[in-house]
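Entry:
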Amino acid sequence: MKRNVLVVQHTPEETPGVITQLLEESGYGIRTINTVAENWAPSDSGDAAALIVMGGPMGVCDTDRCPFLRNELRLLENAMKTEIPVLGVCLGSELLAKALGAKVSRGKQKEIGWFPITLTEDARHDILWRGVESPFLSFHWHGDVFELPYGAVSLARSERTECQAFRYGSKAYGFLFHAEVTPQIAEGMIRAFAEEMRQEGIADEVILLETEQHLPRLMKMARNVFSRWVDLIGS
């Protein structure tokens, strides 16, 4: 029987992108829960083979406005206890950091657009990131940042954000940046969050042009990195 990967989404635009195709190519089904639309999230992953928690415009402290976030934190905690592969992207990485006891707070400046990511020395030996050229340009869209959780390994940073990626144990990863992005995701986020861009003084045509220039190389790298994460599911 085909095993499913549980995907938690908060907006229609922020999908697993590149990861979706890799999961399908490896024979996994995908069960998606849009916690905002359903105003609900499960507190455990059931028989899911892995868990992915995607991004969204809310913050980890918005539990009064978004009470489903409390269950998402429990979902991440329980998934790590069962030692299935876990991947948190953007908001998902912030929730993962919070579930591990790390401080999550507002950053000094929002990071929206294309900015370099520099891998740490530990990333050179990480099963996902070894052999990846550093620095590389990635897509970003976040205002919050997190401290490195106790016991976790820092994997990447950017000029504005000290902790951009981490690994906890051998199968739980948090990526604040959007390596999974596709043209559809980038264009969808630009449309959906146009007001936020206006407030930050960012022109959509600039990000669209940069996306056209930089995305092909990022997608090639992302397929390599995320295919290794998919391999963790069967290990």
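Residues 4-233 form a domain with the Rossmann fold fold (CATH 3.40.50.880).
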